[in-house]
TrEMBL record:
This is Oxidoreductase. The lineage of its organism: Bacteria, Bacillati, Actinomycetota, Actinomycetes, Streptosporangiales. GO terms for molecular function: NAD(P)H dehydrogenase (quinone) activity. InterPro entries: FAD/NAD-bd_sf, FAD/NAD-binding_dom, NADH-Q_oxidoreductase. It comes from Microbispora triticiradicis. GO terms for biological process: aerobic electron transport chain. It comes from the Bacteria. Keywords: FAD, Flavoprotein, Oxidoreductase. Its cofactor is FAD. Belongs to the NADH dehydrogenase family.
Amino acid sequence: MQHRIVVLGAGYAGAIAAGRLAKRLRREDVAITLVNAEPDFVERVRMHQLATGQRLKPRPFAEMFAGTGVEVRIAKVTGVDANRRTVAVTGADGDGELAYDTLVYALGSGWNPQGVPGTAEHAYEIAGRPGALRLRERLARLGAGQTVVVVGGGLTGVEAATEIAEARPDLRVALAARDGLGDWLSPKGREHLRKVFGRLGITVHEHFTVGSVEADRVVAADGTAVPAAVTVWATGFAVHPIAQATTLEVSETGQIVVDGTLRSVSHPDVYAVGDAAMAMGPGNKPLRMSCASGTPSAWQAADAIAARLTGGKLPHVSIRYFNQCVSLGRKDGLIQFVTADDRAVPAALTGRLAALYKELVCKSAAWGVANPTLGMPARRRPVTHKRTAAGSALREPA
Ligand SMILES: Cc1cc2nc3c(=O)[nH]c(=O)nc-3n(C[C@H](O)[C@H](O)[C@H](O)COP(=O)(O)OP(=O)(O)OC[C@H]3O[C@@H](n4cnc5c(N)ncnc54)[C@H](O)[C@@H]3O)c2cc1C
């Protein structure tokens, strides 16, 4: 009887977890199903590129997982019953239910309008493909001299503003940031950011907290208004509400609370990885929603699941930060080196070399997903903790 592992979401974290599980566990012992709403992998880290008209390489899951032993199911997850160990899905063949012995929850995140009035009606977003394509279409219709305001001074906002300004020098691009531009960076990183923003002609509205978005402007909490033919909302991400509707323990942000092995603290058959997980990193700080921590979280969860199923020793994958890789258009970039807990240190790489470095990071992240079972030695051990006849997974001794 095979142990049923269901992985929800084939973004960076879910796809990597599924591939690694296939590499760790014997095919005859496990049935691994990867569920994703869309048939191809979306490189979220390139959504600002998609929005500015660039073409992204298509990466169909059917090709990526062919011959790996992972069954890909294209369907939308509509609910999880963590007590009955079932997942409700809806797809081309209608509604269905998947039963699992171990669940890996990796549904990622989307944009976060933060309840600011007018965002849902008037703002554009680039947290996922539909949003990026909608913005792309809108930008294409903008005439020279019209204004685009990017709201959010974090990594995504900075990348979006510079990408748009570089791709469309005929537009007026502005960034509205709640704090100072690049406040979290080292002096070298900050200086470089200001230089690039100056070169690209991006207006920066610092210490500007947006209170509402209207059809043709954004308005600060103090009433100051900035004209905007298009407003791009990039103030961070929010997880999908599915986990919150379960009996799983979730944080205030709706992320599943997990331990150091990425296992749910309330349901030991459930693991959460990537943006969907509330996991503590170095310095006991929650991991930032990023590929930088999402990828090692997937390695850690897959290795822990494999160890628990095969009676092996629990692994420890170090989840720490090394750098923040920021694209500033296609020709410039900033690699800000950081401490293990993500605080900037003085060293930073800038300019064209940084742009190449960032491109390499994006390419290798996508390569890791596209080649799920390559790049590491297979250590397939027999599963000792199989399903019982009643369909429930045996747990390892406490
Ligand atoms: C423009 C942009 C730039 C970024 N740049 C960087 C960067 O430089 N470095 C970095 O570390 N991070 C960056 N990030 C953040 C990074 O992309 C995310 O943290 C990362 O994608 C999270 O991976 P994930 O696998 O948890 O989720 P996702 O990549 O969001 O994957 C989730 C998957 O689940 C699927 N899914 C969602 N809901 C359902 C459902 N109901 N049913 C079925 N399937 C579903 C989705 O289709 C998707 O395939 C950037 C993000 C954006 C938007």
